[in-house]
Specification:
The complex is a heterodimer of chains A (241) and B (321). With 241 residues, chain A is α+β, with helices and mostly antiparallel strands. Chain A is built from five helices and 13 strands. In chain A, helix 1 packs across helix 2. Chain B has a seven-stranded mixed beta barrel. A six-stranded antiparallel beta sheet of chain B has the order 7-6-9-4-1-11, with no helix packed on it. In chain B, strands 2-3-10-5-8 form a five-stranded antiparallel beta sheet. Classes of the chains: A alpha+beta (241), B alpha+beta (321). Chain A binds chain B through residues 7-11, 13, 15, 17, 20-22, 46-56, 58, 63-64, 69, 143-150, 152, 189, 191, 206, 208, 212-214, 217-218, and chain B through 20-27, 125-126, 132, 134-137, 189, 192, 232-241, 258-260, 268, 270-271, 293, 296-297, 300-301, 304.
Chain lengths: 241, 321
């Protein structure tokens, strides 16, 4: 599967692509590559931005000097050399360490889950079965994007996959736990959105006052735990305090 | 040492040079949409090029200065008067305490910048004073300026200004050599997703749609087709990326661009043309032209050199003053 490519992304970034699909193995390789680039700390490195099957590398190089032009070329060469090992490397983390799983409490009550009935009908399951399947999954944060702190999760049970709404909602409440096709996600902040809303978490996912503003980071593993309305309200009050 | 908002204008935002290094968290770069006019306003006001300034969209605010200040306005051909006296743009202007600055329409573009000597006193969020409207943080509580807001000034270094006054010189604010009038030309580096015929994108003229904002310019025209219709997984995008949604109407992403996108990327507007993109108004027309990385770099370097020369000239003026 040697389809790794490297191409410019505007003037100060490069796109390293390891595949073209949503595939947990490819995504794991993306994160392994991101970690290796960051660990090497090349002096020109500004930022690594992972996605499902690719990652962007932002370079902090002055393009207006000859030295900068040479540095850019050698950075590309260096990154190219990282690609082959990224494709052939043994993947770490296949041994599941339960301590590293982040648990997200979710209320699946009707007020928090406007699309749960539609999803159950679509899947041919009961509400309880949908909740059980949703909570049984072991998810991985494939990337954080779209909005600050929005995690794209892979690992959704295929029986729960459902296409997005034909017309997006103008208002999705903060904390909404959502399904868009085969992907799962959580809206950190009230916003418009077209994914199916199957629950809501009282947890804050993003806060600029935290040392690291996102609750979740790409590469982390996540599991959902069902809570009732009372627990939801209690946790929300706690989070707001 | 503060400025009070008497009327907010259409969308007046505190902006600086933006946030870097946070795209992995889904956080946009943001910052001044027209980096050229923004830098110039700051240099004229005597600030570092990246100090926080007010970004004015289409129609400006009315502001009362509670203390004297040296200010500068750049970009958009904005109409301005202080205590009833018409003000020039692209020059430093001294205003006395109590002065009311009335900013009107942008006659030649979409965005103007108001810089105040010493800058605004604003607590940076995640390393920047920029307003992130979509995420709701930064600047003034993550929102546009409102009537009644008071903006604190960082320093008081305008003592002795008793009347509105400005020097008898100015700078030429042109940032490039494009002629005025007609279609604006925006240069593109090729994207990874080709269109059906590479020339199609460059052959037609596009109109800026009213739904455009700081996140992106939506374009209207004879739609173009992507090379294929297969689904794409979301990949990183950057300011300048030109996306092609299924309806064939391109979107040029600007400073508030989201971090990832799933539409085909058919090109990247070069950095040197971002100021021009920021000044396009709904209804304006543009045309894309192909560009090589070398040409993009040369254009950026010319722009930077021009800014450096202006900074040196301003230093010389101040030394003589």
């Amino acid at each position: 599967m040697n389809e790794a490519t490297i191409e410019p992304l505007g003037e100060d970034a490069l796109l390293l692509r390891l595949g073209r699909e949503i595939d947990p193995a490819v995504n794991a390789r993306v994160h392994a590559l991101a970690r290796r680039i960051e660990a090497a700390r090349p002096p020109w490195l500004r930022e690594v931005v992972p996605a499902y099957a690719s990652l962007a590398v932002f370079l902090d190089i002055d393009p207006c000097t000859d030295a900068g032009v040479r540095a850019f070329a050698s950075a590309i060469e260096w990154l190219r050399r990282q690609l082959d090992p990224a494709l052939s490397a043994e993947l770490p983390g296949q041994a599941r360490d339960p301590a590293t799983i982040i648990e997200i409490p979710v209320c699946y009550g009707p007020a928090c889950a406007p699309d749960l009935d539609d999803l159950a009908a679509h899947a041919g399951l009961s509400r309880q079965e949908v909740v059980a399947l949703h909570c049984a999954g072991d998810y991985q944060v494939a990337m954080v994007g779209f909005a600050p702190g929005f995690p794209y999760l892979i690992g959704l049970d295929p029986r729960l996959a459902m296409p997005r709404l034909a017309s997006p909602r103008t208002h999705v409440p903060a904390g909404s736990v959502a399904i868009g096709g085969a992907q799962a996600g959580i809206y950190p902040r009230a916003s418009p959105g077209g994914w199916r809303l199957v629950g809501r978490t009282p947890l804050a996912l993003f806060d600029v006052s935290w040392p690291s503003p996102c609750l979740l980071a790409a590469g982390q593993r996540v599991r959902f735990r069902a809570i009732d309305e009372a627990a939801f309200e209690a946790l929300r009050a706690e989070a707001a305090a | 040492m503060s400025i009070e908002c008497l009327a907010p204008g259409v969308a007046t935002l505190l902006q600086d040079a933006g946030r870097t290094g946070l795209r992995r968290h889904g956080i946009a770069q943001g910052g001044a949409l027209d980096p050229w006019s923004f830098a110039l306003a700051n240099l004229l006001a005597g600030n570092p090029a990246g100090a926080p300034a007010l970004e004015i969209t289409l129609l400006g605010p009315r502001l009362r200065f509670h203390s004297a200040a040296r200010i500068a306005l750049c970009g958009g051909g904005i109409e301005a008067e202080a205590d009833g006296m018409p003000l020039p743009i692209s020059r430093p202007v001294d205003v006395p305490g109590g002065c009311v600055l009335r900013l009107g329409r942008c006659r030649e573009g979409a965005r103007a910048y108001l810089a105040v000597c010493g800058g605004f006193r604003v607590a940076p969020v995640l390393g920047s004073a920029s307003t992130d409207l979509r995420a709701g943080f930064g600047g003034i509580l993550g929102r546009p300026l409102r009537r009644g807001d008071r903006l604190d000034l960082a320093t008081d270094n305008a003592a002795g200004i008793a009347t509105v006054r400005f020097p008898g010189w100015w700078i030429d604010p042109a940032f490039d050599d494009q002629p005025r009038g007609g279609d604006r030309v925006v240069r593109l580096l090729p994207g990874s997703d080709a269109t059906t015929s590479p020339g199609t994108l460059f052959a037609r003229s596009w109109q800026v749609a009213p739904a455009s904002n700081r996140q992106g310019l939506r374009l209207l025209g004879d739609g173009i087709a992507a090379a294929d219709r297969k689904e794409r997984v979301s990949e990183p995008v950057v300011p300048g990326t030109v996306q092609l949604p299924p309806d064939g109407q391109p979107i040029v992403l600007l400073a508030d661009a989201q971090t990832h996108g799933g539409y085909p990327r058919i090109g990247h507007a070069i950095r040197a043309d971002w100021p021009a993109l920021a000044q396009l108004r709904p209804g304006d027309r543009l045309r894309f032209a192909p560009c090589t990385p070398e040409e993009a770099r040369a254009a950026l370097c010319r722009q930077r050199q021009r800014l450096h020369r202006i900074a040196l000239a301003l230093d010389a003026k101040r030394a003589l003053a």
